[in-house]
Design brief:
The complex is a heterodimer. Chain A is mainly α. Chain A has helices at 2-26, 38-53, 57-70, 73-78, 80-101, 103-110, 121-146, 155-180, 182-193, 198-211, 225-239, 250-268, 271-289, 297-310, 318-331, 337-340, 345-351, 358-369, 376-387, 394-398, 405-419, 432-441, 449-458, 463-466, 480-485, 499-503, 505-508, 513-517, 521-529, 533-537, 541-544, 550-554, 561-577. In chain B, 47% of the residues lie in helices and 12% in strands. Chain B is globular, with a radius of gyration of 19 Å. Classes of the chains: A mainly alpha, B alpha/beta.
Amino acid sequence: MFDYLFYTSLVVFLLGLTYKISTWFRRNIGILGNGITTAQRLQSAVSGMAAVIFSARILGILEAVVLDVLLQRRVFKESVSRWLAHMLIFYGFMLLLLMHALESVISEALFSEYYSTVNPFFFLRDFFGAMVLVGVILAVVRRYFVKPRRLRSGGMDHYAITIVAVIMLSGIALLGLKIASHNEFIRMVEDYAGLDDEDEIEALETLWVKEFGTVSPNIEAPFDEELLEAGREVHESSCLDCHASAPYAFTGFATAMLIKPVVLWLDERDGVTVLWYVHIIACFIGLAYLPFSKMFHLFATPISLMTNRVMEPATSRPANVVTRQIIELDACTHCGSCSLNCSAAMVFEAIGNVYILPSEKMTLLKKLAAGKKLAEPQMRAIQEGVYLCTNCDRCTVRCPSGIRLKELWYSVRESLLQEGPPLPHVLSSFSFARGLIVQQTLATDSYADPIDKARQAVSGQFVNLMDPDTPIPLNVQTDSEAHAAVKDRTYVHCFSCQSCTTVCPVVANYDDPEQELGLLPHQIMCSLGLGLSEMAAGAGMIWDCLTCYQCQENCPQQVEVCDVLYRLKNFSVASIEQ
Amino acid sequence: MRFALFHGCNIPARVEQYADATAAVCLRLGIELVEQTAFNCCGYPVRNSDHRAYVLSAAKNLAVAEQSGLDMLVMCKCCYGSLKRAQHFLSQDPELQADINNTLTHENLEYKNKIQVKHLLSVLYHEVGLKRLKEEISKAYSGLQIAVSYGCHALRPSTVTEFDDPVSPKIFDRLVEATGAFSVEWARKLDCCGAPLTGINDQLAMDMAQKKIDSAREAGAQFICTACPYTQLQFDGVQKRMAAQSNNGEPIAPILYPQLLGLSMGIDDKTLGISKNEIDLSNITSFLISE
């Protein structure tokens, strides 16, 4: 049964691992990978790795392995308590895996004296288990009790904590029951002690009940002193050499003390076997599901840390960058560092789109890369979320997995802009980095398309804007919604002196500004005064406003011209989003 | 003098030499700059999209600074304008302030309008003073012609930003002159650099930049001095690209004010990140004379 379960989960794990690694070269994200085949990606990866291995950059890899992978420097910088939790879980679990789970392969080969019941191994197994348990408790406290704002927990986060917790708790419970179990005592005596004298066994049992937590159906306090003395002699001659005292396994011993009242009941129902199954099945589920869970970061994150140490944005081949970005999606542990430090966090708080938060973008991008089709609202949300980013790079700087998030946003943004609906936020200062950097590096051919698309969407269909010669109807009902949107009603003081238009550097830039801009600043103020708010909001001028505030500064009537244009832009964006 | 240093988003990602040079200069002048990791975007980029998101972003920073009891020292003119405008919006509209504070409670913050937002140049001019500045200058410039770009969002709307006289401002000129350089009079000194439309209407943005560059050149400027990451990037990366695409002559290198000041204080160019500017400005040191 054990073998059957073990090999099944091992095969699933290996197949999963192979499959996941193959996706690193097959899946695509963002605009960079278009037109690059899997074969080319593989080839680039191999030659890229070779170039690193046979150069001084290998030292960078070594540094990353020691400082970032083994010592987890980036987590330490982020938070000492998180580092402690992660180190305890990682090293505790790894040591248990090597010493305990793989004892027949590793421990027995390394230590000729190895017995799981002999110190220091008996103590160490418990100690490593306790390390993991403390780490898990710290992680649970952070995720479920401290709950920093904007740290979000998803199914994968619950799973990861649960599986580790179940493995550890079932292991400790199993050990505790084994310590307390009478069945187990009898089995050990039969298998190891080589005793057949009934009196000797009874004496030994008495000692174990008194001192080592065994719960016997036959013996209970008060204990016969002579029997105890005899038991101690038997213990010393038959047990002590191969079995350290139970209290050395401190977590197990404490558990044994705790479950004392129910041990006999459990023993009757073969509790040891049940717990053993729970423990190994949890381990095998963890193993088999590892490649598909967030635990896969065990493989992907070290690679992310190493590659990002040596890959220079300027010289990296696009094929390798895409491959790295797919690995980075697996390297993300959804730890929330990015979102906790996101500069656009308040934009998220104001408008509520979770995909403004980097960690949440990552979860959706994983799905997108896996080829899932997103529903229209989700597509809009991720497109907006990726765009409402100040490109401040904090997420990249803070990411403990070393993921170059900003580069990922740059690339994903372009493909989402191409595929998605028109996005009015393209006409905001969020576009600065796109104009400054992305235009040169990523999206040279398609750069202007999203801007044109957005301009089209916000441009007014108002007939007087389309055809300036038609007379403006002055008896229109004030479009109240648009009117209300322009809160600062300073425009009512406008007496059309045209100072705003005269000083506007945008107006001055064109030979025929009305043709280019739809309405000039004073005309916009005038339209608002007439109640033609929708017409005002449809003028191209509002999007070409440099926000230099010359108009506002020079208005003799203190009309807040520039701020009114901002309000009109807000109104226009809101209308499109509805 | 202690301030909470507001980096904004552009400086750490794209103009880190501005922060480095500012830190170096402030160290010499005895200005203590306190880092606040809780600061976030000033709200400027989201102004086009959503007014409340803008004010909330700005107010969070103001509240963080309030909590530390420090006035803010802002390097970016757009951040500066955005924060000042938000303070103004909040003080004009108690309902808005209540609504924003309601959201800020989740961050354990409250905005009470208790601190002042100050731009680097204002602090150097008004609080440090030219006299103290000159004491630190060990190698004044000679024969160096500088065109100062004031920056719209600090200058206007002047009743809100309270930076300088909007029609004939002087503090930037005086600060440049303190280093021994000559601040040229140029027609487009107070104009927009075009950066707000970079990425939105690139042609218009470049037209604006080109007009300023031509005007500075006409006035005989050898460098354009900036005190804003947007302006700096517009005259650095964008101008470089423009120069490569046209034959409007050699670009005029921009220099960040703390870089200009730092060099004259004898701070080494590595600390000031001189080589991090895209357009080469290493020849500026040839104007320095030891006193």
